[in-house]
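Bench notes, bay 3.
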Amino acid sequence: MKIAVCVKQVPTRDWQPRVNADGTWIRDDDASFEMNEPDAYALEEALRLRETLGGDVVVCSAGPARVAQVLREALARGADRALHVSSDALATADASTVGTALADAMRDEAFDLVLTGLQSDDQGFAQTGVVLAERLGASHATIVMEVQADAAARSLRVKRELEGGWFQWIALPMPAVLTIQSGINQLRYATLKGIMAAKKKELRVVEPAAAAAATLTITKLAAPDKTRHTHMIEGSAAEAAAELLRLLRDEARVLA
């Protein structure tokens, strides 16, 4: 079974974002990066399917040269080889542009199954996997919590998370694209042996097949304004109570 996993490199969650000079994205030149968490769960699910059914796991990503960092990490965790669609323009591209670039690079591989994380931790569109399925002409399912694959019958049975605590089981044929929900499994981490082995694994770098026109453009990005502050009320208990009542009535307007 030939499985692809699409991963994205995102700023680390504990890094304090700084907006760039033109206000269209963060200052990524002084940022630290990591693998998108939902994509890590997708990679783990692919590795478990390979252990059960056999085959290869190919990890794919689109973006600038620094993306090789997360691809090497995925190889260290157990992926067999990597594919990097290299372009600086894809660092901040929308889901349609990224999905199209990945599909063009992955099409000739004829994957049986493609897994992605449900959404990215930075932009959070949750659309790249859906666009990828459309471009590859594959069936797809989103917010997947469990995967049961029958390689011989080339079919899948997956459990999807719905609203209100409900779940849905659906069957779909392969090739297929699934977007994986975080928490579907227990993540494994790279061992020293895996890190050393990753250095010898193939990491193929390709250019985007075509310069796709962006369908979404970020025109302005800004940190949220702090609109609330602490108001210290001084004076005696009676004076403080009277002032609190006034503030609740006249400023907060929660009292008539």
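Next record in the batch:
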Amino acid sequence: MQSVIIIGNSSMSEVLYTLIKNDKRYKVECFAVDSKFITANTFLGLRVIDISEISKKYVKSKVKLLIGIGYKNINRNREDVFNR
């Protein structure tokens, strides 16, 4: 089973989570966002962590990231998160 972290805590992230949550190939570990966007400790029943904590809490080779960022500045925001 592949561990997954979804980047984001908005409607786009919710759609991604809904699409993969019942797929036995994946286990969504948590949601991750920049600290200024953390409005609650959980989202859809899973933890929300600061994006900068991913490398401290997870082994890079054992987790995949899905970027679930919405439509505002679409590719610029996604590219920024991807590059980090």
